């Protein structure tokens, strides 16, 4: 799907979306017509956006008095038509007028000015659709605040990890803030993961590009396949290659380690356990591990680890576990 500015103009796209929407509301499209609609929707992100707007407005139409709907088609009255067909005519005749009649400004206000607080518990994963069309996937133990206004879409991440799929809105940048800095999206088609650790913020880009800025004003531009992090001082590291699929395997309940030092494995696994997991001081933390485990059953990893590496698992009285040298 093309994410650049639509060459045919927003009004033309809005009118064409209304024509397609009215045809579909008349009844099931033929296979040929459905293929044409699918092709049109896939041509540009703005096509899908305008069509989705009409779908949301359509859902609110039944709550409107007929007299209000009649005002939409004063230039071409169709008062004898059934109610639903009447709305279709209004949409096809004038999308702008239909938007006003079906509560466009109320919907737009909700889209532009939106606040919410989201959180997940241990080992809970949630998927959230925001009013602008952006999609969020929250890992366990995540806390964030959503604050949308007319000029900006801002997410304040205070704990955990989120995979962001950002919807098109050229007038409002999408900004993710943490204690160490910000991640800003100004282009469309962007998918990226932000993880907040106690001493740093890690960013990995799967698609598109983002700008990472630390609290000390250092910056890095990341494109697909690149990552960076902001340290406790607010300094952004230079971009480096990342395996975005492995880093975001948590979305499917997986933990993927590719030649990772045991100290990093322990840090990652601890995020999915109620009781802490530690690694003993010394060389044991430098041992390397390559394997895949379930994030929902980290005990299985502990059971398997002694058969993979020369280590043993020691359980303490407080319920915590420690990986020690065998």
Compact overview of the structure:
The chain is an alpha+beta fold and 326 residues long. Helices cover 31% and strands 32% of the residues. Strands 1, 2, 3, 4, 5, 6, 7, 8, 9, 10, 11, 12 and 13 form a 13-stranded mixed sheet that branches. It has a 3-stranded mixed sheet with strand order 15-18-17, covered by helices on one side. Strands 14-16 form a two-stranded antiparallel sheet.
As a percent range, the share of strand residues is 25-35%
Helicity level: 25-40%
The overall average pLDDT, rounded, is 82
Separation, N- and C-terminal Cα atoms: 54 Å
Overall geometric form? elongated
The secondary structure category is alpha+beta
Q: Treating each run of at least 4 consecutive H or I residues as one helix, how many helices?
A: 10
For this structure, the CATH topology of the largest domain is: Jelly Rolls
Helix and strand succession? HHHHHHHEEEEEEEEEEEEEHEHEEHEE
Biggest sheet statistics:
13 strands, mixed
Number of strands: 18
What number of domains? 3
Calculate Rg over CA atoms: 25 Å
CATH first level of the largest domain? Mainly Beta
Indicate the CATH architecture of the largest domain.
Sandwich
Task: Note poorly predicted spans.
Answer: 75-81, 93-105
What does this structure look like?
The chain is of the alpha+beta class and 326 residues long. The protein has 3 domains: 10-109, no CATH class; 113-244, Jelly Rolls (Sandwich); 253-325, Phage tail protein beta-alpha-beta fold (3-Layer(bab) Sandwich), CATH 3.55.50.30. It contains 10 helices and 18 strands. The strands form 3 sheets. Strands 1, 2, 3, 4, 5, 6, 7, 8, 9, 10, 11, 12 and 13 form a 13-stranded mixed beta sheet that branches. Strands 15-18-17 form a 3-stranded mixed beta sheet, with helices on one face. α1 (10-26) crosses α3, α2 (31-43) packs across α3 (45-59) and α5 (83-93) packs across α6. The protein is elongated and about 70 Å long. It starts with 9 loop residues before the first helix and ends with a strand. Residues 75-81 and 93-105 have low confidence and may be disordered.
